Structure prediction request, 186 residues.
Amino acid sequence: MSLFAVMTLGFYSIDIFARNHLLVSKRRTVLQNELSRALLSMSKWVVQGIGDVNNQPLWGSATGFTVNLYCRDGKTPDKYTDDTWITYSLGGNTLTASCGGSCAGPGGNACIPASEIFSKHVVAGVVNGAMPGNNPASGLYYLLSENNSVVEVGLVTRWLPGQAASAENPQVAMKVKLYARGTSVH
Prediction:
């Protein structure tokens, strides 16, 4: 009878380990997919950013950063106040993108949808600076450089963003450097 009990206990332990490992892997995959989607959107729009030395294509705020996009209607190429802009911001643990401005399109916006939530798992806190390599403490890092035509973005997520990272609460961090190609520095 004791051999049967040891075998049952062994199978039960393997089952618990496998279920826990599957759950943590699923959580990490969801976090990676959320960050990848957000960084893909940022890459798509930042590369289309337009500006000059007096009207930078990128600018920062306490909650994130904004990209200026040209309407491409050909009417006012040197006037930036009538263009569209996309703001990436972090409110609490929610990373969103909002579109505004006066470009023609459905709902008056050049980007659809007008607002989009990328993740509700981002660690709270925005830092206007580079993301550290080890143990980043905030969720959104951005560093503008080269006359605000380049942005280095770092994002940090946790399954339970208000709690410390652990084996059951995986943390995923990604960063990218993006260039607004439609920028004149003269």
